[in-house]
Amino acid sequence: MTRIRVHNMTMSLDGYAAGPDQDLEHPLGTGGERLHEWIFETATFRRTYGDRSDGPPEEGLDDEFARLGDDEVGATVIGRNMFGPVRGPWPDEEWTGWWGDIPPYHHPVFVVTHHERAPLEMAGGTTFHFVTDGVEAAVEQAVAAAGGLDVRIGGGVQVLQQCLRAGLVDEMHLAIAPVLLGGGERLFDRLDGGPHGMEVAEMVSSTRVTHVRLVRATP
Amino acid sequence: MTRIRVHNMTMSLDGYAAGPDQDLEHPLGTGGERLHEWIFETATFRRTYGDRSDGPPEEGLDDEFARLGDDEVGATVIGRNMFGPVRGPWPDEEWTGWWGDIPPYHHPVFVVTHHERAPLEMAGGTTFHFVTDGVEAAVEQAVAAAGGLDVRIGGGVQVLQQCLRAGLVDEMHLAIAPVLLGGGERLFDRLDGGPHGMEVAEMVSSTRVTHVRLVRATP
Q1: CB spacing of B180 vs A203 below 8 angstroms
Q2: What confidence tens digit (pLDDT) does each residue in B119-161 have?
Q3: Residue B16 host element (H or E)
Q4: Any idea where the domains of chain A sit in the sequence?
Q5: Topology (CATH level 3) of domain B4-18+30-86+101-216
Q6: Could you say which residues of chain A have pLDDT below 50?
């Protein structure tokens, strides 16, 4: 049974998943990078993305949560801003994502956008599919493409909120960073009084961050 | 040096210090009681307020944080809603607080209100003073009355936000409960991009709740 999962979604203590004054050059807003410092330290992140920290790669609780984000995932759904800074209709085929020639997905990725574009096959097994009929269609296509594995909702915040509103999420890992941003994009917002049908299964802290697992509530 | 402190202020995972649909009969809103279950279990709470749980009184991390709220406190500031459900001018002297004949403060308590009332001396050392010229005046009077001990901001949320906006808070203990309320009164709100001048000193989880200590940032 394919599950729809969210991992490593990080918010500040005051509830923001990105800081204030977001723009195309600063997609995480002012101070937003500080949210993610915990994951930069993990062995899992550094194997995939390289070193953004001088310390040794860390294993332990944070790394365990980081690693779960890749386990048994056969397809990913992301919003257009996660794919790149281009807005409006695609001017050409030049932009191929933030990740260079070999994106770290190694499976089909469904990009929710208003603007059609042909599928983009990259080295290493990642193909970007551009879905123009909404997040539910993107999730449906991802499930079909996942080959029996799970589907990960990769973000950003708006795609996640759309999935939560549609009741599509089976499991969500959230990290709370010990950071105050004072403004920005709230994670728990635009949810019509929800997230409905979700409950907290676990809350545990490392020295860097607090991890929370939300799961679909048992009826 | 008298410090201005906040203790045991609890918010939900989605950021609410009280649930939706607050009214005079339900001052914590729908589901808001669930925020405080962790403290009902503590030995400190039960010594003061009695048993609201069937289990044994718990010591350990949660109890340590609960107990700190009473240590070295010489005066308390609260909002009118924390004192009682009466709204508008005081019709008479009948309402004397939620706590019965012997309130658990045992020191001067300054109630921020728009409506004048004579001081109310209770058994056990608690006197309620009604302050009509704002939260800063209430804190100033509390400092003068604390006899060199600290002043606690007891809540509710609006009084706390006013104190944070005015830069009055030296230290704040916040508990994050593994609860989703879906709406209600946001804790980190109406802070003009703040809390300014505060930083996170500690974040640690028990099995029931995550504790965070905010302190005045060192310049």
Answers
A1: no
A2: 999 999 999 999 999 999 999 999 999 999 999 999 999 999 9
A3: strand B16-18
A4: 4-20+28-85+101-216
A5: Dihydrofolate Reductase, subunit A (3.40.430)
A6: none
Q: A194 to chain B, minimum CA–CA distance in Å?
A: 5
Q: What's the CA gap between A169 and A197, in Å, rounded?
A: 9
Cβ distance of A200 and B178 shorter than 8 Å = yes
Show which residues on chain A lie within 8 Å of chain B, measured between beta carbons: 13-15, 20, 174, 176, 178-180, 182-183, 186, 188, 191, 193-196, 198-200, 203-205, 209-210, 212, 214
pLDDT for B49 beyond 90: no
Q: What is the model's pLDDT at position A62?
A: 98
Whether A205 and B200 lie within 8 Å, measured CB to CB: no
- Residues of chain A with C-beta less than 8 angstroms from the C-beta of B200: 13, 178-180
The B-side interface with A (CB below 8 A) comprises 13-15, 20, 174, 176, 178-180, 182-183, 186, 188, 191, 193-196, 198-200, 203-205, 209-210, 212, 214
**Gap between the Cα atoms of A2 and A5, Å rounded:** 9
Beginning with the edge strand found earlier in the chain, give each strand of the sheet holding A150-155 in spatial order: A120-121, A127-131, A108-112, A73-79, A150-155, A4-12, A171-177, A210-216, A198-205
Packed helices A157-165 and A135-145: angle between N→C axes, nearest 10 degrees: 90
DSSP B57: P
Cβ-Cβ contacts under 8 Å, A13 against chain B: 174, 188, 200, 203, 212
Overall average pLDDT of the B62-68 stretch: 98
pLDDT (0 to 100) of residue B27: 82
Question: What is the ipTM, given to two decimal places?
Answer: 0.94
pLDDT of residue B111: 98
B167-211: per-residue pLDDT in tens? 999 999 999 999 999 999 999 999 999 999 999 999 999 999 999
Question: Chain B residues with CB inside 8 Å of A205's CB?
Answer: 203-205, 210
For A4-20+28-85+101-216, the fitting CATH number among 3.30.420.40, 3.50.50.60, 3.40.430.10, 3.30.465.10 is 3.40.430.10
Give the bridge partners for B152, in sequence order: B5, B76
Q: Spell out which residues of chain A touch residue B179, defining contact as CB-CB under 8 Å.
A: 200
Q: Which residues of A touch B11 (CB under 8 A)?
A: none
